Fold TetR family transcriptional regulator.
Amino acid sequence: MEDTKTSPKPRVRDAEATQKRIMAAAKKEFARNGLGGARVDVIAEQAKANKRMIYHYFESKETLFQRVLEEAYSDIRSAEQKLQLDHLDARSALEKLVRFTWKYYLDNPEFITLVNSENLHKAKHLKKSELIHTMSRRFVSMVGELLERGVKEGVFRDGIDPVQLNITIAAINYYYLTNRFTGSIVFERNLMAPEALEERLTFNIETIMRLVCKD
């Protein structure tokens, strides 16, 4: 006899699809307006959901913002792991990491605005996330291993802190892009022109190499 019981799988898939739509809409809204300015009803409209469903799945706007942050950091950390830097010599691997960071910031401007918003809230959402800590430790370990490999190859200076190096790589990319509008006025050049972006990337790579390399 044919089983006429309703399978739970379609319902599960529907729930997952709804949550993905909510997350995607929330990412855009938080990136555009920050946590304080973001509106749950806008997120619901863009996600083709309703506010009740958002609160059902995510409990609050604060929790939804934390989930969006976790996903944003997870995306960049996962992409970094896929670079397969351990298959390259240390100098080439470091250059690839610098290039990746620059391109990722250019291609994902919402990541920068989400980080800016969280800094306004003194990282109170990231503090609650064990996932962020786990991903960050893995990334620091990857950079640390890269530095150790460079020392063994005789190309990198010894004693460089992987956390400080990561902060510097992020900073020289991050500052340029977050200040592109004011910088273009102050320095009287279009900082986002293709030739300016290429010039900046070259400068960033040279800066990091001078910091890390022996010669």
In short: The CA atoms of residues 31 and 110 lie 5 Å apart. The chain has a mean pLDDT of 92.
